[in-house]
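sry for the spam today, last one i promise. struct tokens for design, 627 residues
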């Protein structure tokens, strides 16, 4: 109504005068005006106001998430997601044919996607440079200024304090800019992170290799653009996709994939079918694979044109499947035609060629002695070069019903790939030497390869064949099943639900000493690693790519932890993988890398195609997640 418009406009004018242009109240006013005009079908004005709100929100988020806990960061970002989704809905519903608005929408999504992980990595990298006193002092000052600026931004000054408030805010913003400029000049990691954070579609298009595309997925809440309510009792979601071609950045496609629940349900069904054994399972999974192809890949073909090399940045449950296993109507798998390079966020491409160089050492670890006694373990620690200052990681859970069957082919795998990569450049730790302490004391190996059991916990997990566990295995077991360890699970933190098992893990649980450096290495502990300069981490184990999915923020699990720790690329599994077949695939993978004729993604794809012959039941071992 005209009355509502007048009131919102008056409120906006008052807040602009008293609080300045970047206050949360001003953002809210812009949002209300955008919805008001959308309700009148005046989408141009609605678009103008939502753009202004989004610009303010981006500044507020940058100020807040730099110093709060991860839970607080997530909570704050989620509360600001409604406007982000409203904006993307507005473009999707009314401006999908407008090239400039599509491009602007992609720029906003590129900035916001995976933002918390980016901030965590920025602070992790800063911690590593604390040996440089000047950088440490500047970073501490910047954190303090950000905290003060955030507190001031969200305060409400009295009428008499308006000018003083605006002056203080201006002074803090100037101080923040100066500190960031100083840090960028003397800290390469900080400068790179600033560059990546501010990347837009034009910058990304310029660094995309020729004849490649970036495919960005977004899982967004569907907005009723004519409603003034920011929440609904039953929210509905959909997937939209951006396609950006290499070049100038002007070529941006936007595709609506439709109902997210339908897609998510089919992904869950597909993974369930792949996890089962039995006659007819391959045919059933193949049918679902083709249905998923129709839902999530066929709609992209027009915008992909003839491009076969794709940088893929999934969102939501799309992060839990490798696109390689999707089948075309003729039965061919996408891996036969396309090469996929997975990313946490598209803006990561800007920093790909500027990561610090690594040493030549490869660290290969696995085939652990799970039952190693504590006394034996201590002798290895005392005889080794272990920094005890790094042995203070904490845990808050016990695993329930995990198997510790030895992995016979993991030993052969490590010996074979160590020989391929060169004995002089390889450190190999197996059996009793595959210690958590050794892993946690490593610093930036060129390649880190871990061949052992992996786990991801929902509520209960049980042993299965291969290198991990599936929930369905529990149903087939009785109370007398051998080689089980009972325990209590209390794993609210998703980073404690996934991990790998190293030497002494079984003995730690049996003795009741599970806790510090017990051989059970969770994603939370992996955050303590320094992998800056590490080109690749290979987790040759089951379920290592799984975790708790947060739309817009990726998967909270091992993949996030290794990325935050500094690893440039990951090779991981999204389901159960047999021991022997994994070994053979990994050996071929490293042969391809050593040939010098393929990059990591090409090497894995070639190993997959040549080894599995693309039969669906065995293809599950080949679909390793990487980005």
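last one done:
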């Amino acid at each position: 109504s005209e009355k509502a418009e007048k009131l919102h406009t008056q409120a906006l004018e008052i807040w602009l005068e008293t609080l300045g242009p970047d206050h949360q109240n001003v953002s809210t006013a812009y949002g209300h005006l955008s919805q008001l005009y959308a309700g009148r079908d005046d989408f141009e004005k609605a678009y103008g106001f939502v753009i202004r709100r989004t610009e303010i929100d981006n500044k507020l988020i940058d100020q807040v998430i730099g110093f709060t806990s991860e839970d607080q960061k997530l909570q704050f970002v989620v509360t600001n997601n409604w406007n982000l989704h409203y904006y993307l809905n507005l473009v999707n519903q009314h401006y999908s044919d407008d090239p400039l608005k599509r491009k602007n929408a992609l720029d906003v999504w590129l900035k916001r996607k995976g933002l918390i992980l980016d901030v965590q990595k920025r602070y992790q990298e800063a911690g590593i440079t604390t040996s440089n006193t000047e950088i440490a002092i500047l970073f501490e000052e910047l954190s303090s200024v950000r905290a003060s600026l955030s507190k001031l931004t969200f305060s409400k000054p009295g009428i008499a304090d308006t000018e003083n408030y605006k002056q203080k805010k201006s002074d803090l913003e100037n101080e923040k800019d100066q500190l960031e400029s100083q840090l960028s000049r003397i800290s390469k990691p900080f400068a790179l992170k600033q560059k990546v954070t501010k990347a837009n579609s034009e910058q990304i298009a310029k660094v995309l290799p020729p004849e490649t595309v970036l495919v960005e997925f977004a899982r967004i809440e569907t907005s009723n653009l004519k409603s003034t309510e920011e929440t609904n009792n039953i929210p509905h979601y959909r997937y939209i996709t951006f396609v950006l071609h290499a070049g100038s950045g002007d070529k941006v496609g936007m595709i609506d994939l439709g109902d997210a629940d339908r897609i998510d349900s089919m992904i869950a069904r597909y993974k369930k079918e792949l996890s089962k054994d039995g006659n007819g399972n391959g045919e059933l999974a193949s049918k679902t694979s083709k249905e998923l192809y129709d839902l999530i890949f066929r709609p992209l073909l027009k915008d992909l044109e003839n491009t076969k090399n794709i940088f893929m940045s999934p969102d939501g449950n799309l992060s839990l499947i490798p696109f390689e296993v999707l089948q075309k109507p003729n039965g061919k798998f996408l891996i036969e035609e396309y090469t996929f390079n997975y990313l946490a966020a598209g803006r990561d491409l800007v920093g790909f060629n500027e990561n610090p160089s690594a040493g030549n050492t490869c660290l290969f670890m696995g085939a652990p002695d799970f039952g190693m006694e504590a006394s034996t373990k201590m002798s290895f620690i005392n005889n080794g070069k272990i920094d005890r200052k790094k042995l203070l990681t904490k845990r808050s859970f016990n695993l329930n019903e995990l198997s510790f069957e030895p992995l016979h082919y993991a030993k052969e795998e490590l010996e074979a790939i160590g020989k391929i990569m060169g004995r002089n450049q390889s450190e190999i730790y197996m059996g009793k030497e595959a210690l958590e302490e050794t892993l946690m004391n490593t610093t930036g190996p060129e390649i880190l390869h871990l061949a052992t059991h992996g786990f991801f916990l929902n509520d209960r997990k049980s042993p299965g064949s291969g290198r991990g566990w599936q929930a369905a295995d529990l149903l087939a077991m009785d109370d007398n099943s051998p080689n089980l360890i009972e325990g209590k699970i209390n794993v609210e933190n998703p980073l404690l639900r996934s991990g790998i098992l190293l030497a002494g893990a079984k003995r730690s649980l049996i003795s009741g000493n599970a806790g510090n450096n017990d051989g059970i290495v969770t994603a939370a502990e992996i955050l303590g690693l320094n992998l800056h300069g590490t080109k690749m981490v290979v987790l040759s184990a089951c379920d290592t790519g799984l975790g708790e999915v947060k739309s817009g923020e990726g998967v909270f699990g091992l993949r996030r932890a290794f990325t935050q720790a500094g690893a440039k690329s990951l090779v991981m599994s999204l389901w159960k993988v047999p021991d022997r077949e994994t070994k053979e695939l990994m050996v071929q993978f490293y042969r391809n890398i050593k040939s010098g004729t393929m990059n990591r993604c090409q090497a894995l794809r070639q190993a997959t195609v040549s080894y599995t012959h693309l039969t669906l039941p065995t293809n599950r071992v080949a679909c390793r997640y990487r980005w």
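The longest helix spans residues 70-94. ok im logging off now
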